[in-house]
Amino acid sequence: MFKFWPQKKKNSKILWLDLGDLEDLVRPDGPHEQWQDHGLGLLRTILHNNGIVTDLLSTRSMTSWQQLRKNLTGYEMLIMNVRSYTFPIAYKSAQLFKEVNPNGLVLTGGMHATVSLDEMTGIEEFDRICQGPGENVIVDLVKDPLAFPRVVIGVGAKSMAEWPMMDRTLWPKPHRRLRKNFNWPLEPECGWGPGPVATILTSRVCPWQCVFCNENSYIPNMGRKPVETVIDELNYLDDKFGVGSVVIHDSMFFQNPKWLQEWIDKYPRRANKVWPYWAAGRSDTVRQWPDLFKALVKETNWNTISIGLESGSDRILRLLNKECTAEDNYYTIEMVNQLGDELKREGKQPAMLWANIMLGIPGETSEDAFETMRMLKSMRYVFPSISYYAPYPGSALGYQLIAEGKSLMSKDNYHRFPGDEKVKGVDYQFYRELLAGKYEDEVNRGLDDYTRKQSGVFADALVKA
Ligand code: B12
Ligand code: SF4
Question: Helices 428-435 and 366-377: crossing angle, nearest 10°?
Fold first, then answer.
């Protein structure tokens, strides 16, 4: 059937293509697919500040590949930020781009270029591939790509203090039907705090070395954004668009006590409002700096506390090189339980634990998994976020499983649905039954009366990973 899609007006010969599953900004499955890309926002801001205007399209706004193909026509350059989970979309888009613009150039960068260069160089449509940070190379690269080799080593800023304030109006707009609740150029509410939501980054790298993540092995270290700059940006966004709550996208917000202390001192005084926020921490450091943690929750409105608890089994935590023990996890859970009770007594909303849990870790026994379920049942103020372990390139365990041929995350399907099976040899049927509550008797063994009575059904808490 013939379909007519109006083409967007072109202001430039250079196109930045925002990546994500088709229709994520038309009919999204959930809120997280709608979140915007800070890499794109930062680099487009730098380009525009240097007089290089780019057009923008998003695969997330497209309802079909034909629609994308039609809209790619007539551009001379295509730029994309490629992460592992968007790699299949990136290479398909590059192929379509070359079909309609055989002389056009495709410039890529992003996490996947750093962690999986061979997959990137295997795509002949990628003319330039930038590994690492791009902020101090993007302008020269876009001005004269042919002066660079095919694989470009990126140049980053020493500190996030050097980054310009991102122009959020350079982010893609959602489809008309989503606009009312999207709050563009801020972002939609996802259940953590009122909209409009401002997502921000205050730090770039987490220094720990968990084997399923260890991003500090591939993201160069970088100074944290000054506290005052973070607050001033939020105030600016509030004055212009009205901020309802904040999501701090840092991999590890709860690091660097000096910075955190300054945040406690300044955020409640300097910000237009002490907006509630989501941010991430670790259980061992909560145990190490309990007073700092409590002050952050109570004085700065850290109301959704994301902790990578991962497992209730010490054996698995060691295998993951998490450097946190089950005791650290229980300490943190108890502290959030108590803080929740305290806040409730004061007539306030309890702070919630965003509990990141992994199941299906190679080598995990059923008893390890039962320990994790017991731990989950002990949380009183919780949003459980459970995922099946996914072997991403870049992480030590991911590389190992890929090399052993055990990864099921193929080049065409890195990551789609929560229930997707990710590693060969893992008994996913057992996990499906576990999350459906089929092993309640085993899980309840040894639990006190209160905890035993909590529901052991967590099938709805399974998220993409
Ligand atoms: C915020 C964030 C999210 C947010 C928002 C994602 C989004 N829309 O951007 C949410 C919570 C939704 C999310 C979800 C997921 N994320 Co995430 N996320 C991050 C995080 C913490 C920050 C990303 C960011 O904004 N970085 C800052 C910007 C400025 O950096 P950047 O985008 O990489 O861009 C720089 C360079 O790459 C380069 N560059 C980029 N493009 C280009 C292009 C050119 C031409 C050039 C020259 C340079 C260049 O220059 C930029 C400036 O230096 C990173 C970890 C990290 N510290 O980066 C993980 C990370 C990217 N996520 C990851 C993963 C696995 C996921 C999930 C699959 C699940 C999970 N485990 O969290 C989901 C999938 C989401 C989906 N859509 O399906 C992995 C990706 C691993 C990989 N190999 O690609 C990371 C690295 C975390 C990790 N260590 O596991 N994520
Ligand atoms: S899992 Fe968390 S603590 Fe571990 S390296 Fe990644 S961000 Fe850091």
Answer: 20
Q: Are residues 345 and 271 in the same domain?
A: yes
Instruction: Say whether both 254 and 361 belong to one domain.
Output: yes
Q: Rounded to an integer, what distance in angstroms lies between the CA atom of residue 209 and that of residue 206?
A: 8
- Give the pLDDT confidence of 136-194 residue by residue, as tens digits: 999 999 999 999 999 999 999 999 999 999 999 999 999 988 888 899 999 999 899 99
Q: Is 68 in the pocket of ligand 2 (CB under 6 A)?
A: no
Residue 183 lies in a domain: no
Residue 354 belongs to a domain with what CATH number? 3.80.30.20
Q: Ligand 1 pocket test: which of 17, 21, 43 has the largest number of ligand atoms within 8 Å of its C-beta? A: 43
Residue 7 lies inside a defined structural domain of this protein: no
Q: 153, 181, 207 — which closes off a domain? A: 153
Mention every residue, 6+ apart, whose C-beta is less than 8 A from residue 22.
Answer: 59, 60, 62, 63, 64, 65, 68
Identify the domain containing residue 393 by its residue range. Answer: 189-461
193 lines ligand 1 (CB under 6 A): no
Give one word for 378, left, alpha or beta, with left for phi > 0 and alpha for psi -120 to 50: alpha
**Ligand 2 in contact with 252 (CB < 6 A)?**
yes
